[in-house]
Amino acid sequence: MPEHDAATESELTTAILSALTKAGKDLTALTPRDLAPVDQFHNGGTWATRKLLALAEVPENGRVLDIGGGIGGPARTLAGEFGLHVTIVDRSPDFCRTGAELTARLGLGNRVDVVVGSGDCLPVRTASVDAVVLQNSAMNIADKDGLAAEIFRVLRPGGRFAFQEVMAGPVEPVRFPTPWAIDPADSFMRAPEDARRTLAAAGFSEITWLDASDLIRSWVRARIGRSPGTPPIPPLTSFTMPPETCDAAIGNMWRNDEEGRTVTIWAVLEKPDSSDAGATA
Asked: Which pTM was predicted?
């Protein structure tokens, strides 16, 4: 593990490491469990990442692209627990810097790469990955056609696209702020049937499509029952939003779900073997 260099780390990294220290964590011996409250900030946490990977059936030692991977929690789970090689693409340079630092501290720098970029214009070679995963990040990408086309492009024939996405429910409007957007201007949710049409038009074959909203609710209730009170290290929004906005965003996330304003979809799709999407560029 590299030595701690406060002069080169980002403000977000500094804040997270400080919170870990205050929680009594040893910065020279961090574990994925130490980081989980802050770096697994998507519905279902590490449990959902494992479930999604099981559905995707990614080959051993496969190469995976994690779009909107944030500060790297899911990618480190895929690399550390399943031995996969993961590239994170995230549009936030600060998230990427923090993700790279935390990944190095967990000794996974040889299996996880971090790249600044956008899901609708991926800095990744054509037909170069076995799987693409996306968890709770497509809500911030406006160009859904471009996103689907780019995912299809970078997958090898027979490759899988596995995602967990918060989508528009039957009740309107969505309550803001949310963890992914302060207001509607940065939120681009779609209805599930719209998503299915977009992905089919891009050339994908559907393997699994599951409304996981009830599963996520059960996970939340079980988690609250096991761990009452405030976690030792707060979620990522606590480091990126003012306290009052963070509290409102987290509250609205669950209210939107309970009121049917949002639904959570788990899906796995495949790029057909017969595709002539191109050899590795």
From this structure: 0.89
